[in-house]
Amino acid sequence: SSHEHKLNFKKSKEVCLSYVQDAMLQKQWKRAAEFLTFYTESLEKDFSTEYMGPSEIIWRIGTEILCHHSHSSMKEFNSFIEQMKTLGVKRYLKVCLEHAFHLLCNGLIDEAYQNLSLAESWRFGEQTAIQDKEMKLIQAYRGLLDYYNWSKQKTILLEHGQDGFEDLSVEQEMHSCFRKAAVNLKEIIKIPGVWDLFVKCYVDLLEFYGDHNEARQVLNEYAYNSKFPANPNAHVYLYQFLKRHGESKKSLISALKILHDIVPSHELMIDFNTMLQKSKKRKKRRLGLEVIFAALDYAGWKENVKAWSCLARQVKQIVISEKHLDWIKQEWNSRKDWWPAFHFSRYLAKKNWQENESLSYEKALVAGILLGRAFCICLYCGITYNAFSFFFFFFFFFFCLFYFKYVSHQGCKAQLKRFRILKKFVNKHNPVYLRISG
Which residues are listed as membrane-spanning (predicted)? Predict the structure, then answer.
């Protein structure tokens, strides 16, 4: 029957599409192209009145296949994309944008710019207003390419300037690119969103021409406007700008404090900790200890010598003065159950010593202070504290005490003076451990 025929036809199309997807997942691009051809042909024979919306499927899948197919060429890709532009008015600007991306990835910058310029001049009744956001993206990426051309002209001008040669045509071209880039980049960053690349380029333009107030305003808006999504990079850009222009430490700390709240493992936490430690305010020095402990909670920091050096230095200062030991205690209490295996295992002791002597030194100092030598004495003498089970002693001995013992022994064996000093320091301040451990 006619109804049964339609059902079978619909089923065959769905099966064909699943074959395409399966081939793509297995990176069988030739096979995927063949099935997509069959799928397209089946659509041409589909006389049902039901809307299937196949054009976007063909566009998405076809683009992916052509990008990976070993025999595809730029000419074929361009031809395919031009056909896709005519299939759906609603997706015209999206297709144009993807076409520009593909051209850029293949180094065809002028062609991409031309493509974006043509898309910007596109008009189609009410669709123009509906696709306002896509149009702003088109303009923004064109502005990005104007920035690229501006940057090239700037380089040429600076090189010629060193030789005492001034090329007015280059300077005029450079200013022309600046005006076009600035207009489009400024528009896109008004819309709430993540516009990292556009913001960086716009700020670079403003800074070059000495408009520092406008640049600061842009970065403040990008970082602090509640309409924009939380974005760590916004605070990074603001911090870098403030640092370049010699702003006060209060402003720098304020920018990094928010970054710490969002991403405590960010690489700028070293700078943050250093500034906080130099502060005369106790509250900021306390925050500095919290910052460096939090950073070392992450695996990416396990072998960061600077981070361990920052922690070792602050812990050492606190131990010598015997003030604020409660700071260390508070940080250590939430970590003592997992940091030993995470940072101070037997394996890491040997590995760190073999690969990085400085790292071993800093970690051994921290391990010696946080874990002390009282545990070791108690184990050998058969003494236990009421607050801990024997299993807890056993765990710490093998995962923690070994690190300090192994590294300090290797350092002394290699006749390295600082390791002998390290060992004496930890032995001298061993009672501090009892106060930290409670």
Answer: 383-404
